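Below is a filled-in request sheet from our internal design queue. Each sheet records the structural input a requester submitted and the sequence that came back. We keep these sheets so that new team members can see what a complete request looks like end to end.

REQUESTER: design group, bay 2
PRIORITY: normal
MODE: inverse folding
CHAIN LENGTH: 224
BACKBONE (tokenized):
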């Protein structure tokens, strides 16, 4: 089954490049292109499976409401400048499925689209992940994450860490040597305990609050 993708980009030459790249994939269909001002109307008219948003088509800070609306209609992948990726943690919390930097390779982008189409997530590339570390923590999210972290089992913490590293359910199952059903159960428990609705939101809170750093420290301490 082909994944129907709407491309949202302000620059025609950049849009043409993304379009040409994705049209080479037999399981991906570019059904249209739109600017930030027209993307909502195009989404309602075309009903895409996924929307590829190339910032600043919709800037991260100024247009969160529009991104949240789009995320309710289709899976949204946001591509931002690498130096701005740390600001995009907010859009993960409002429903955006994945965030990539402009330094992302074409293979990573295509992989992300395919993961999103199956319900898995690719949050961000390795070279941009450190940008999340210094993000300021709000007291509410910190308290929520801290309370949730106290309820997480050691295996559930491993799942959070692997989700944050961009692993799919299948990759996590292989890493932890368990079944896909078990992983889905762990993910469900993580969402419930952190009081969020999506895996992206769980990872966003984990980064924002420092929970990821805490889990990584515990994970490193267990290693020989």
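RETURNED SEQUENCE:
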């Amino acid at each position: 089954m082909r994944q129907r993708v709407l491309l949202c980009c302000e620059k025609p030459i950049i849009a043409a490049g993304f379009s040409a790249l994705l049209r080479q994939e037999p399981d991906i269909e570019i059904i249209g292109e739109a600017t930030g001002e027209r993307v909502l109307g195009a989404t309602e008219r075309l009903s895409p499976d996924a929307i590829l948003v190339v910032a600043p088509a919709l800037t991260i800070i100024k247009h969160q409401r529009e991104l949240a609306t789009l995320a309710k209609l289709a899976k949204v992948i946001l591509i931002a400048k690498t130096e701005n990726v740390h600001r995009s943690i907010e859009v993960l919390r409002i429903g955006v499925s994945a965030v990539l930097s402009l330094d992302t390779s074409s293979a990573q982008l295509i992989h992300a689209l395919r993961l999103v189409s199956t319900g898995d997530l690719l949050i961000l590339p390795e070279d941009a992940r450190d940008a999340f570390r210094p993000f300021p923590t709000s007291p509410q999210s910190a308290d929520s994450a801290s309370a949730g972290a106290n309820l997480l089992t050691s295996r559930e913490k491993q799942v959070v860490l692997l989700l944050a590293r961009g692993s799919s359910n299948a990759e996590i199952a292989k890493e932890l040597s368990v079944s896909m059903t078990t992983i889905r159960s762990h993910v469900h428990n993580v969402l419930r305990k952190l009081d969020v609705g999506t895996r992206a939101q769980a990872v966003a809170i984990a980064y924002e609050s420092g929970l990821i750093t805490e889990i990584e420290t515990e994970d490193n301490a267990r290693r020989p």
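SHEET NOTES:
- Residues 72 and 124 are 20 Å apart (CA to CA).
- The radius of gyration is 17 Å.
FILED BY: M.R.
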